[in-house]
Design brief:
The complex is a heterodimer. Chain A is an alpha+beta fold. Helices cover about 15% and strands about 45% of the residues of chain A. Chain A is built from two helices and nine strands; from the N terminus they run H-E-E-E-E-H-E-E-E-E-E. In chain A, strands 2, 3, 4, 5, 7, 8 and 9 form a seven-stranded mixed sheet that branches. The longest helix of chain A has 11 residues. In chain B, the strands form four sheets. Chain B has a seven-stranded mixed sheet, with helices on both faces. In chain B, strand 1, helix 2 and strand 2 form a beta-alpha-beta unit. Chain B is flat, with a radius of gyration of 28 Å. The chains are: A alpha+beta, B alpha/beta. Chains A and B meet through strand 2 and helix 2 of A and strand 13, helix 13 and helix 14 of B.
């Protein structure tokens, strides 16, 4: 049963193509650094891990909604993905639309 | 002579009207859009014009909006969403129709654009508007939304002119005053607002409701503009429109700005400390009032007739000036510009730039503690160096933060004070809208004084049939 579930989870996990993404999420401090969380507390939640040097860019935005441009260089599958930050800015929270979070691909690129 | 009359009559009866209706882009996830009332009005207009040839490209993904679109525009040649590809396809299709003379001399082509519009930051001659893809988080730049450039309509404008097809571009978006640059003696351009102003859905709603057979675009514009009560600045490309804009635009612009927590044109204006030319404006208004006052002789008594009374506008402008100067003085005392200063920090492996605002609002100690815990657990020497470098950067930032707060203790609650001033500004919308309403009366009177039947006027010549 466990094997079946694991296979099922792998099958339904969305894979992310390499390229530049526009990400609406919230940076949070976890044990191993600052991560950007997208679609928090939902089945489609995404946890974006950034390289150590990029953490400095995110520190002023801790726990605030941001709009970031992120480059994904490796094909990621599942909820934890890795990407480097190209640009980031604070984003006014939309009180009328709490689900105003997500990520969309802007341009595709070759994987490393 | 009679023959010529019948030829002209037949020619007019054979002429066809074409409509490209596009937009409703840039709206977030919800079941309706702010464009729905005007979509419904346009649907009513189209239903009463069965001979009109129409192509529709409007946003999808909003159930109530889709329902209106689905049950309307039944005679449309095409009915699609409004993606960048749809925009391109429509331009190519109408370019081909014009080239193949499927739209020909005597015909009229109306391009009605109703979407979110960006400020012009160059190099576009006009500006960009939002498509169905994405929703903007900033209504000035439309960041977050996929956009298309209205300059791409130039090809249709040039072809229409060379083929003798009357063209009108109605741009109902924010910052649509930029589209006035596409106007020429054959192309009428009507914009819902100025190049540096937000637009409001009410203009398009009222405009589309006023579209009736027999009316000219100039008539509709003047009728709808006179009713408008928003801080927008609708514009038209007629000579009279250009003359009024020349007089009014720069002078009135700052008085239509107001504070808004998310889309704010007022604060940058205030932060720059830009002066508002209040006294000069009032003097100019008084001269205009005098010019537009005629004296009539009734039964031997001389009676003055004013085409425009600027009393209310004058009072509102003075009131605005008072509150503006008060806020400007408070902002100056706070010196919020300090918050934008940037400090750089560097270690052997890391570097970071922080504004003063970021420095005083960031809890660097929290990050230092987190990094120190990670350093003890980290086994890879390369990563250890990176972590050490980042700790050093955070420590430098923390030191700078402490120096700033010690030497300028008022920085500590600067953001709160700034928010308090902004809260004071919250009543500004009503003030700006009241000025807008008075501006409408002044504009109408001025426009009338500049109107002439002798100059070419593509907006007067474009009559809905």
């Amino acid at each position: 049963m466990a094997k079946f579930l694991a296979t099922l989870i792998l099958l339904i996990s969305k894979s992310y193509a390499c390229g530049i993404y526009e990400v609406k999420g919230v940076p949070r401090l976890v044990k191993n650094g600052i991560h950007i969380f997208v679609n928090e507390n939902s089945l489609s939640a995404i946890d974006i891990q950034v390289p150590i040097p990029d953490e400095a860019k995110l520190s002023p935005y801790l726990n605030q909604p941001i709009l970031a441009s992120i480059m994904i260089k490796m094909k990621n599958k599942g909820q934890l993905i890795q990407g480097t930050i190209l640009e980031t800015d604070s984003r006014p929270a939309n009180p009328l639309d709490p689900k105003d979070t997500g990520m969309k691909i802007i341009s595709k690129a070759d994987c490393q | 002579m009679i023959q010529l009359f019948f030829i002209l009559l037949t020619f007019n009866a054979l002429a066809t009207d074409h409509l490209i209706y596009m937009g409703a882009g840039g709206e977030g996830k919800k079941d309706s859009t702010i464009f729905d009332p005007s979509i419904q009005n346009m649907a009513n207009y189209v239903a009463k014009s069965p001979e009109l040839k129409i192509s529709v490209a409007l946003n999808g993904g909003h159930s109530k909006t889709e329902k209106i679109i689905e049950s309307s525009f039944l005679n449309a040649v095409s009915k699609t969403s409004f993606l960048a590809s749809d925009y391109k396809r429509l331009i190519d299709s109408y370019k081909s129709k014009l080239e193949k003379n499927e739209i020909t001399s005597g015909d009229q082509l109306l391009i009605y654009i109703d979407s979110h519009g960006a400020e012009n930051t160059g190099p576009s001659k006009s500006h960009t508007i939002a498509t169905s893809e994405g929703a903007p988080t900033n209504l000035d730049s439309l960041t977050g939304s996929t956009t298309v450039d209205l300059d791409e309509l130039i090809i249709l404008k040039d072809l229409a002119k060379s083929k003798g097809v009357k063209l009108a571009i109605l741009d109902m978006s924010c910052h649509s005053g930029n589209t006035q640059n596409l106007a020429d003696e054959n192309t009428c351009v009507i914009s819902a607002t100025g190049p540096k102003h937000y637009g409001y859905a009410s203009f398009s709603t009222n405009f589309s409701a006023a579209m009736k057979k027999g009316k000219t675009l100039e008539d509709i514009y003047l009728e709808v503009r006179a009713q408008d009560t928003t801080p927008a600045l609708p514009m038209i490309s007629t000579q009279a429109g250009e003359e009024v804009t020349k007089f009014l635009y720069q002078r009135i612009t700052p008085f239509l700005y107001y504070f808004d927590a998310t889309n704010d044109k007022f604060t940058p204006f205030l932060e720059k400390g830009s002066p508002i030319q209040c006294q000069e404006f009032i003097q100019d208004l008084e001269s205009v009032e005098k010019l537009l006052t005629s004296t009539k002789n009734i039964l031997g008594f001389k009676k003055k007739h004013k085409s425009i009374d600027i009393k209310v506008l004058k009072r509102l402008i003075l009131k605005y000036e008072n509150s503006y100067n008060e806020l400007k003085a408070e902002m100056k005392m706070l010196d919020t510009q300090r918050l934008k200063k940037v400090e750089s920090f560097k270690s052997s492996t890391q570097s970071a730039n922080y504004t003063w605002k970021e420095l005083i609002t960031t809890d660097f100690k929290l990050f230092i503690n987190n990094m120190q815990l990670r350093l003890t657990a980290e086994k890879v020497p390369y990563n250890q160096d990176l972590i050490k470098g980042l700790i050093s950067v955070y420590e430098q930032a923390e030191t700078k933060k402490n120096i700033l707060l010690k030497t300028m203790p008022d920085l500590r609650d600067l953001s709160l004070k700034e928010a308090a001033i902004k809260a004071k500004m919250s009543s500004q919308y009503a003030q700006a809208a009241a000025i807008g309403t008075e501006e409408r009366k002044l504009y109408s009177a001025l426009y009338k004084s500049y109107q002439s039947s002798l100059t070419p006027n593509p907006c007067r010549d474009f009559k809905l049939r």
